[in-house]
Amino acid sequence: MRKSSLFGILLAVLAALAVTLPSACEKYVLPELSFSPDTLIFTAAGGTQTLQLRSNVEWEAEINRSDDTWVEWIIFKPTFGDGDCDVEVTLADNTTGPLRSLSFDIKSETLKHTLTIIQEGGSDN
Q1: Which of 48, 52, 49, 61 is nearest to 34 (CA)?
Q2: Torsion angle of alpha carbons 63, 66, 71, 75, nearest 10°?
Q3: pTM of this prediction?
Q4: pLDDT value at residue 97
Q5: Sign (positive/negative) of CA torsion 59, 64, 66, 72?
């Protein structure tokens, strides 16, 4: 009788291992996150440029400012995603102001890169 209960326990343990083992053997995918170019330069007239973002993980873009607020002269879309994406960066004109710049941190759970955006100033300075 003792052998059969020991055999039953061993069988239950092996069954539990058989269920959990396949999920423990999943391959780890090395996260990748890159984009090109890493600096966008706009004329004072503004306009739209495309950032080619390549990733195999979820990512998000955050403005790199101490108050963490968006500025009114830039549109960055999309601001998050999962995988490769062409990001459109649109700037309003800057015909009367000085040169302005801003940076975004584009990051995943484990990676972070900085995109710099520069816009020339207007000729009325």
Answers
A1: 52
A2: 0
A3: 0.72
A4: 87
A5: negative
